[in-house]
Design brief:
By secondary structure, this protein is α/β, with parallel strands linked by helices. It has 3 domains: 59-406, Up-down Bundle (Na+/H+ antiporter like fold); 415-520 and 532-538, HUPs (Rossmann fold, 3-Layer(aba) Sandwich); 545-714, 3-Layer(aba) Sandwich (Rossmann fold). It is 58% helix and 8% strand. It has helices at 15-35, 40-51, 63-82, 89-118, 123-134, 141-147, 153-179, 187-218, 222-242, 247-257, 267-290, 296-299, 301-329, 333-343, 348-359, 371-410, 428-438, 460-479, 494-505, 526-535, 569-583, 593-604, 655-662, 698-713; strands at 418-421, 447-454, 485-491, 509-513, 539-544, 554-558, 586-591, 612-616, 634-639, 667-672. Strands 3-2-1-4-5-10-9-6-7-8 form a 10-stranded mixed beta sheet, with helices on both faces. The longest helix is centred in the middle third of the chain and has 40 residues, at 371-410. The protein starts with 14 loop residues before the first helix and ends with a helix.
């Protein structure tokens, strides 16, 4: 090549061509290996082998690969913590602890005996090599994200166990490494290391959410928020390295504490995943491949023997750990496969252990871990990443197919379509964010943004302003990876335009902003909302937000008596529960009597959600008592009713004045349920055999009412 192109010297050092080659690998590796049904992660690693110094030596593993690779590793751990289903984490924390401890103890025990009695190593190197078997890296986590099963419990268990096993591995590394530094290690040094890590973790858990919530309320620019999140991630990782632990633990912890502030359907989450999966994570995988030297095993039987033992022990012990966890926790075989797939790959902690051992020089001049162990560790990384990718791919596909089957058998409404009316630039982001959080994520075209232009308005500026609002709504949704259908239409008034569009688009839900009173004679809801409630019998949500939705800490829901008899009861309960799940905040339902019993059956018969609580409310007049419990960072949801509906009472006539007087400084959602049609049982929240709430028609309700009167007369 140098003869044909005399101006080109290998390895290439020009940053422009280095970046071009890396981008070509990131672009074509998934395409080529996808046609061969091979996980593209393997393609990244093998491409790194080919272009590295042990392959064609096109590139050196310079500081750029070290920098971007380090960022990619932190990104993997950060995304793992960010996408963990914190709503169900309490229910699986024991399983994660079991898998983490078993996944550490089994490799350490069996690995030590294999290293000592099969390979003949002494105590310190045998334990250090066993620590490499115990650690694991979530290299195959992007596969799980691609299949959309990151919130499955087996994934959460594996992610939680990763933090446990890697922390224990790093503690072992600190103990053994300390014995060979500065003439030995103080016995109290390990205790102080644990204290420093624990203190730092408490500080991160306490300060990061509060700082993040303040920042997101003050700054709404997507780029600024993205940079802020990255700064917190690397601050956490840097502080963790400063106290003596690896930065991956700090990045994972940052993901956990920011989990609630970055909903998985938000534009910010989409941007974080996009940048990481498009650049940083591939850089890390290519850099891992550039470390691998396959020639070492061709001429050395001893090195090959060490590598085979290391690979066999690493894979066998992690499979045993997954099998033990499956039996102890009564999990399925597919979940066992997911546990094994995610926990079998080695990269970050393994490299840290082997490089520390390789750098320790013994008094006789030899290294604590020799060249054969270093090359065996590189082979271990390659083989385990390949095995992990195939195992995770298979398990993810099976889990995704099972979840899709369940949704098809009894999932969300197939005809769901949410209509949002945009007319105020200050409310566009809130309305779009709410629609993104309550929509069915399996559908691609279920949000419609509408701007109505009054026929009497002839100003071209009004029309242009409406189109800008629609473009802003589309931009916000597109940044979250969701398509929105924009509609601009003329009408006699805004209400008639919304009503006609709802009928034309067959919208099942309407979301509008709360009307601002323009004079003393104006009503609380305004003419638009009152007209909609009279003419449209689908679910209508009226929203007033004083802060971004992702900074809400609690949802307080006031449910009127007999709300369970409305046709849209299970539907709005599903929407509120989904909103709370996305935001990761507590939901307090205030209801009384039969309504509370129906809510309890609907919410708790199928799943146990510790973030949902049902509190008794003696009468609807107790709504005013909630003013003492609803803080400025809470969302008050008032389930109201249209005049003439089953759950309507005259107390609703006083609702506008009560809200204006007692809840003027709170974020508010007024929810009017569906008023016709059969209610759809939410399979996500209820057992159809035990928790189905049977609707009551107007005729039946009237007959019950007359029978009560007749019994009183008797």
């Amino acid at each position: 090549m140098t003869e044909l192109f005399p101006h080109i010297e290998l390895p290439i050092t020009d940053p422009t061509w280095i970046f071009f080659i890396v981008l070509c690998i990131i672009l074509f590796a998934p395409i080529i290996f996808g046609r061969l049904n091979i996980p593209h992660i393997i393609g990244m690693i093998l491409a790194g082998v080919l272009i590295g110094e042990h392959g064609f030596h096109l590139l050196d593993r310079d500081s750029s690969f070290a920098l971007f690779g380090n960022v990619g590793l932190y990104y993997i751990m950060f995304l793992a913590g960010l996408e963990m289903n914190m709503e169900n984490f309490k229910s699986i924390r024991v399983k994660a602890l079991i898998f983490g401890l078993v996944g550490f103890v089994v490799p350490m025990t069996l690995g030590y005996y294999a290293n000592a009695y099969v390979l003949g190593y002494s105590l310190a190197p045998a334990l250090l090599m066993a620590a490499m078997y115990a650690s694991h890296t979530l290299v195959s986590y992007p596969i799980v994200a691609r299949y959309g099963v990151t919130r499955h419990r087996s994934v959460s268990i594996a992610v939680g166990a990763t933090a446990i096993t890697d922390s224990l591995t790093l503690f072992v590394l600190a103990i053994i490494g300390g014995q060979f530094k500065d003439g030995g290690q103080n016995p109290l040094s390990l205790f102080w290391l644990v204290c420093r890590v624990a203190l730092l973790a408490v500080l991160i858990i306490y300060f990061f959410p509060r700082v993040g919530r303040w920042f997101f309320r003050k700054y709404s620019n997507g780029v600024v928020q993205f940079i802020f999140v990255l700064a917190l991630v690397f601050l956490s990782a840097g502080l963790m390295k400063f106290v003596g632990m690896e930065g991956i633990l700090g990045a994972f912890l940052a993901g956990l504490v920011l989990n609630r502030l970055i909903p998985h359907v938000s534009p910010l989450m989409h941007n974080i995943e996009f940048v990481g999966n498009a650049l940083f994570v591939p850089y890390f995988l290519i850099g891992v491949g550039m470390l691998i030297n396959l020639e070492v095993f061709v001429g050395s039987i001893g090195a090959l023997e060490v590598a085979l033992v290391m690979i066999a022990m690493a894979l066998a012990t992690k499979w045993i750990a997954a099998w033990v966890t499956q039996k102890l926790c009564r999990m399925s075989k597919i979940e066992r496969g997911m546990l094994f797939g995610l926990s079998s790959a080695r990269a970050a902690a393994t490299l840290a252990v082997v490089l520390v051992g390789y750098g320790i020089i013994l008094p006789d001049g030899s290294r604590l871990l020799g060249d054969e162990v270093l090359n065996g560790a590189i082979a271990l990384i390659l083989v385990t990443c390949i095995v992990s990718s195939f195992a995770t791919e298979r398990a993810s596909r099976r889990i995704a197919l099972d979840e899709n089957t369940l949704k098809e058998d009894g999932g969300d409404d197939d005809n769901e379509k949410i209509l949002i009316s945009v007319s105020n630039p200050d409310t566009v982001e809130h309305l779009v964010s709410l629609s993104l959080m309550i929509r069915d994520p399996k559908k691609t075209d279920n949000i419609v943004a509408l701007n109505v232009i009054n026929d009497s308005v002839t100003s071209p500026a009004k029309a242009r302003g409406g189109k800008r609002l629609l473009l802003e709504a589309v931009r916000i949704a597109n940044s979250a990876g969701v398509a929105v259908k924009p509609i601009s239409r003329y009408g006699l008034n805004v209400a008639s335009g919304i009503i006609h569009t709802q009928k034309e688009q067959e919208a099942t839900d309407i979301i509008i902003g709360l009307h601002r009173k323009s004079n003393m004679m104006d009503s609380f809801l305004g003419g638009l909302a009152e007209t909609l409630l009279n003419e449209v019998h689908r679910e209508v949500i009226i929203l007033k937000m004083l802060m971004p939705l992702n900074t809400i800490r609690r949802i307080v829901v006031a449910v009127p008596p007999k709300a369970e008899y409305e046709a849209g009861f299970s539907k709005w309960v599903g929407h509120i529960s989904k909103l709370g799940s996305v935001l990761g905040c507590n939901i307090y339902f205030h209801a009384g009597g039969q309504t509370a019993m129906c809510l309890r059956r609907l919410l708790f018969s199928h799943i146990v959600n510790e973030k949902v609580k049902i509190i008794g409310m003696d009468s609807w007049d107790d709504l005013l008592l909630l003013s003492a419990d609803v803080n400025y960072d809470h969302l008050l949801v008032v389930v109201s009713a249209r005049r003439g509906s089953i759950s309507y009472t005259t107390a609703f006539d006083r609702l506008p004045s009560q809200i204006s007087h007692y809840f003027s400084n709170n974020s508010l959602m007024l929810l009017y349920p569906d008023q016709f049609g059969e209610p759809t049982a939410l399979q996500t929240f209820s057992d159809p055999m035990s928790a189905h709430v049977k609707p009551v028609s107007y005729t039946t309700a009237f007959r019950r009412f007359m029978s009560k009167i007749s019994r009183r007369k008797q």
